[in-house]
Amino acid sequence: MSALNHSTVVAVIGAGAMGAGIAQVAAQAGHPVKLHDSRPGAAAQAIDGIDRQLGKLVEKGRLSAEARAATVARLQPADAIEALADAGLVIEAIVENLEVKRGLLRQLEALCSADCIFASNTSSLSITSLAAGLAHPERVIGMHFFNPAPLMALVEIVSGLATPRALAERLYATASAWGKQPVHTKSTPGFIVNRVARPFYAESLRLLQEGAADCATLDALLRDAGGFRMGAFELTDLIGHDVNYAVTCSVFAAYYNDMRFQPSLIQKELVDAGRLGRKSGHGFYNYAEGVERPQPVELSSAASIDSCVVEGHLGVAEPLIQRLQDAGVQVVRRDGSGLLRVGDALLALSDGRLASQRAQEDGLRNLVLIDLALDYAKAGRLAIACAADTSAAARDQAVALLQRAGLKVSQLADLPGLAVLRSVAMLANEGADAVLQGVGSATDIDLAMRAGVNYPQGPLAWADAIGLPGVLRTLEHLQASYGEERYRPSLLLRRLVAEGRCFHD
Fold first, then answer.
1. Cβ(87)–Cβ(11) below 8 Å
2. Residues contacting residue 250 through CB under 8 Å, at least 6 positions apart
3. Alpha-carbon distance 277 to 298, whole Å?
4. Whether the model pTM is above 0.85
């Protein structure tokens, strides 16, 4: 299916940050664009703002003066909604209110031509519900951009119950022609990104609530070991807790209080206190002038370590061995079940069990569990958790060994799955359920999470790299530890493991 012709007039309704950004994207792609807002003068003001932003790109040498002038020339403020009658595509980016949006769509249906496409930039409302009151609901589709629209690559193309596949393909092709990375998704609560991303916040919030570590340490682990650009606490401070908490509550309610999406009491407290993050000056962190950002808690050991013993294969943690050898540590290899011995300490990659539970069940003394890392060859930090009977000397030996590999070490309380492993396992689990329920393909879900929220790797591809049996085992252990449906493994994950397949076979 071909993209909309450049001669097609694109109308954008709503001249706020998102609407203005979408208008800029369409104009830069070559379309004549009409920008309308119910506030007098807002559309013209937004176009002036776009011109200034383009001017900054010209100053930086990233855009020619001619391209700037051509883009601005394609932008036209529309003071009255009647001026949008000749549009071939209308994208609404107004307030997130179902009845207000429905009223606008009814008005547009009476105004625009029969072949005009109505797209909604909603991030949370049902496309099926938005279209339901129209004579021709098949004209309505979701075109969910991410903020800031000119910079963020992802666009979710959201099909409602009445949306024909041909229309979805046309908007997909159009978004591609506009330089975006579109994905197809179904009109279900949260679409792809706002659904699959929930565990990223939820698991860190739970770890904080259960005393695993402080915010700075947990954020540092997700950044330095997990490869995420920001940890959950600094990211929700940036988003705004009123916004992030509201999305979580919306998804939770839409899925009939499925405990996978349960909101956090800690975040509710922040919202109730007006501590909304950066925009209010205080959230998980204090942004007042002169206040120093807290630093992650790290362990340090002066123990002298020259050698270690590797029993079996360490799986995804195997690159640690090369780092140790490069640092001059003598590594002795022998058969075994994936354990690393140094002095009295025994190190193992977490499998989702408590360290003390695993030590007792497997008969392991001085056990130190290590967390997942995106890339053990490059990670700058690693979390550990110790069994109750692990001696201080054994812990120091484990820390000293990891320090020899160039790693900073942060200890968490003995909680199942540590930080990165449980977060990634839960992200993959939610992605698996989204695939199972036809919300999106594995490829589109991974692309959405990389392009929409800057994940270092798509959660399903990451699960493939870890090994699906290991991810399933982690989730089963989490569910057994907590006794909650929140951690129930996806049926698709179980099926793929039983079939010996991966998400991206």
1. yes
2. 124, 189, 190
3. 25
4. yes
For residue range 190-208, what is the model confidence (pLDDT) as tens digits? Answer: 999 999 999 999 999 999 9
Say whether both 199 and 183 belong to one domain.
no
User: Per-residue pLDDT tens for 420-447?
Assistant: 999 999 999 999 999 999 999 999 999 9
Total number of domains in the chain: 4
Give the model's confidence band at 258: pLDDT under 50 very low, under 70 low, under 90 confident, else very high.
very high
Q: How far apart are CA 196 and CA 363, in angstroms?
A: 37
CATH number for the domain harbouring residue 269: 1.10.1040.50
Q: Which of 187, 218, 248 is the last residue of a domain?
A: 187
Residues with Cβ within 8 Å of 27's Cβ and at least 6 positions away in sequence, in order, are 33, 50, 71, 72, 74, 75
Catalytic residue numbers, as ranges: 123, 144, 156, 194
pLDDT of residue 267: 98
Its domain, for residue 455, covers 421-499
Residue 330, CB half-sphere, CA atoms under 13 Å: how many?
6
Structure tokens at 129: 């519900």
Spell out the alpha helix ranges (H) of 142-299. Answer: 165-177, 193-196, 198-209, 215-224, 232-239, 241-254, 265-273
**286 inside domain:** no
Q: Is residue 181 located within the same domain as residue 37?
A: yes
pLDDT on residue 124: 85
